[in-house]
Protein 1
Amino acid sequence: MKDNKPFEIDNLDGYQFEELIAKIMKKKGYENIKVTPKSRDEGKDILMENLEGDLILVECKHQKFVGRPVIQKLQGAMNFEEMKNPNKEVKGMIVTSGGFSKEALDYNKKIGQSIELISGKKLRDICKKLDIFILNGKVQIITNNSFKNFTENEINDNILKRYSKIYGNKAHKISVKSQLKFIPSCFLKYNVNFNTSTSIGCVDNYSNSGKKAVHGITGDNLDDGVHDFYFSGNIDFEEIDKNKLINKQPYEFTENDIEEQTIESIIDEHTHNISYTGNNNVTYNKECIPKKRDIDIKKFVAIYLPFWSNSIKISKMSYNQNCYVKGNKQHHVEDELKKCKICKKERNDYEDMSLCPECGRIVCDNHVKIDYLDKKTPICTIHAKPLKLYIQNKYFATKENRNEYNEWWKSKKFFQKLWEDQIAFWLSIGGIILIFIFIISSFT
Ligand SMILES: [Zn+2]
Ligand SMILES: [Zn+2]
């Protein structure tokens, strides 16, 4: 794939070719790129600026040969632009899918090479250098960019560290199967600028900017939590390791598709209502809707998100854990180690959970009993072994512990036995007090 990069632009019409060139130029680092509307082509197809702020007029020719007249026409447009912007340096560029005639090349030499000429071959080289893949005129997303990731050992260590916080964890060893996936995503930064006018003139001047992160397979916006995890704070980029490339999930969309789709959602997001007073002193409402050309995608980054699916076995129970990774941080979208196997509720901390030694269930504090004899072994409410004293039930992790306690309890004197059954004990005390009150009141 690397040596045989697809670069297919033959089927494009002139306008699609211009759009494509604008995209390539953006990737090359030019700014404020505007494709001239078809009807107003004044000898230039694209207007853009380089990093020094110079104005560059681009003429696009999707044809086999470009002759001298095209250069002369662009020169005219450059002169005109120089008059309009006297304090700006104006430069020219002609991009073709084909080549330049000898006449054109000679003429450009004569005028001091003031216009940059980019032939189809050179265009291909630029794309190759910038890692741009074009198929059916659309920019394909092919990248190995990702975030700094965990190794499988680090993932395992991390799970063990979390597991060790669960009460009673020593009763079982865990086994972990981890699977790494790289999930395709795109990150976009944009500006929106537009005015809304009515018969009384401009009534709204809107300017805003924003960010979007899109899933490269579904095309949906990324979940807010995932978005914030990756795109705020430190961003630790890393190329995907060669032997992990197999874990990449391919992008379902082209860059053009994603941009178009995102622009639709940006339009929705920045559509707003205003009210204004007309000349007749009547108040009107107006919906201000940005147009596609009011939105400038300033940045487009295709990047893979490292995603681990861990399947954890404890005794016969299995637990799933799914998390995104960035640097040394994890963002869990699912973590069954914190989810009670009985009530299915998720808790905040591993410290809130206990492990049943008998079945391997991880349970919340509502679904665990502590062995009454050794005062430390946890047992899930399904496997806790009850022993009824007078009224109260005591729970044990094993039958042996239950028997041992039972023997001991039976051997005790009545009051000590009663004291062990706190419910029976306090009920008795309450009863005695009531009897006393009754006797005293009957004497007075
Ligand atoms: Zn529970
Ligand atoms: Zn159990």
Protein 2
Amino acid sequence: MSETNYDTMFGKIVVDQGLCTEEELLKCKKLLEEHDPNNPTTLENLLVNNRFITTSQAKRAKDAARETKEAASHIPGYKVFGKLGAGAMAIVYKGKQLSLDRTVAIKILPKRFSENPDYVQRFYKEGKAAAKLNHNNIVAAFDVGEAGGYHYFVMEYVEGKTLYEDLAKGKIFSEAEAIEVVMQVARALAHAHARGLIHRDVKPKNIMVNSTGIIKLADLGLARDASDIAMAKSEAGKAFGTPYYISPEQIRGEIDIDARADIYSLGVTFYHMVTGRVPFEAKTPSDVMKKHLKEPLIPPDHINTSLSAGISEVIEVMMAKNKKDRYNSAEELLIDLEAIGKGEPPLRAHKKFNIAELEQLQMGEDIDLEPQEKTYDQETIAKYRTAIIVLSSAIAILVLIVMFLSAGK
Ligand SMILES: Nc1ncnc2c1ncn2[C@@H]1O[C@H](COP(=O)(O)OP(=O)(O)OP(=O)(O)O)[C@@H](O)[C@H]1O
Ligand SMILES: [Mg+2]
């Protein structure tokens, strides 16, 4: 039995949303091909019968696809064509902005976002800020709005692929190639940070390469929901996607997230590109997050021994657990990236390492020496004090006994 268009779309959505793996989908596609044509079935049935997805997951995926497509086709001023892709939470369609006759990408957010007024407010605020950005390495934001209860985000259409597609195939980037990609993203971030926008979700799926090889950072200005973190920690985390690239301070739920969180996530992406694997892997999203917080990083040149010390050092500084030990800004990072690109040492990273070491030394002194000296002094004083009290009491008793005896005579 052959696969229908509906099967293809359904299969893509369930894999994109992390409900089943690519292998599980392929297995069912094969079963579908071999299935008796006199007894028709669907890919959806096979995925459910093989327990790769549940009936309710299948229903939710179907409903989301149908409803968002319906909402997208009612956005005034736009004509919607087909689906470009789906993430863990949203579906992206290709469309046309009729007034300007230009091709665009339209991202439709899930309905649950509309239920949180704080989020909706931030969605419009960040959307407006993003529309003011103008940079060759940033996917331009064109419009935000609501249709049929769904909020949408209209952006520049990028004809190309995401960095994730290459990494998922197991590609390991050469140093020069990886430095070039990271530099273009760092330039995009420098532009956005200077205008007060922090991305908060830098990762290979949000880094696109267009047909002319230019890097485009996507989803800038798409306000993220703070409850995403809570969701990732919970069972529903399966649909959220594993937080391989998230910074420690975002995991801790800190509110003053700054440029350094994006530098951390770009560091993880850099690590993935040159080693072929993410630095912290675990079975559940919450275990991955624990590792970001606590587990020391295996230096990238320990995994790919052909890497230069310079690139490894830059990645380690980008990924320092304490944001104080990272590059302060994307500009500062760019100086080191340019240096290692030319085969020169990353001087800023050296300095950061020295400062971190000095701080550790100072902390060590504080902890090891001072408190010990203080405790010793106090203990000695206490001992002397007790000895004096005991001694004087003994003398007093002795005097009393002598007086008592002499009075008796
Ligand atoms: N501006 C765009 N132009 C062309 N295709 C796009 C554009 N933005 C997104 N896409 C495609 O749509 C897919 C889904 O994007 P979306 O941002 O919803 O999720 P994601 O970034 O892949 O993953 P996640 O949901 O985990 O953030 C992308 O992987 C990409 O293939
Ligand atoms: Mg995205």
Protein 3
Amino acid sequence: MDTLNLTDIIHWFNAIRNLPENQRYRALEGMWDTQLHSKKWIVDELNAILSSDSRNHNVYVFGGWIGILSSMLLQRSKFAINKIRSIDIDPWCESVADTVCKPYEMDGWRFKARTADMCEFEYEHNLSPSIVINTSSEHVDQNTYDVWYDSIPKNVLVVVQSNDFYDCSEHIRCVSSIQEFKTKNHVSNVLYEGTLDSKNYTRYMCMWIK
Ligand SMILES: C[S@@+](CC[C@H](N)C(=O)[O-])C[C@H]1O[C@@H](n2cnc3c(N)ncnc32)[C@H](O)[C@@H]1O
């Protein structure tokens, strides 16, 4: 996944431009090189796992932030995506993510951001999840993660990322190894596990069938 659509990139910039000046840097925090590489990692590994999968997937992204992963998935997945929902507890994220993914939001809400706590979220009727992604697992305590995980239906493809960046005050559930990651996140039936060097810290990711 090396190229992105110009139309989509224009909407990324619009999302920044539309914000009040004192909020623009906040949106740019989600666009660091390490952030983009970690999202590309998800797209690449999902493409490898699902390249010959014929289902039309409903994807839920938790801790979806400003919608960059959803935009990348909608542009570059080699598997069919019906709809994506991006859930974040921070209401500020909703309109930014909807602008980042504007072409898909306008296409009958193929993409839509939602504001909710992941552990209280109720999956939409008629939009049962087939892929559930959590890129913010280090931002929630173990109880929140466990309640969130329990609510995922069986046979869903689960993707979780975490990291060992303990120095960030918002990171309350980091891990130091892939083994610790697997234990804390209840990983079983592994389809992919790996690490990504992100300059000052390591990211961890597993993909598995619940
Ligand atoms: C700052 S982002 C970073 C995530 C990840 N490290 C990455 O690189 O993509 C973390 C997001 O998780 C969201 N978040 C934290 N707790 C949450 C919860 N309980 N439910 C949903 N979203 C949550 C925050 O609002 C924030 O937008």
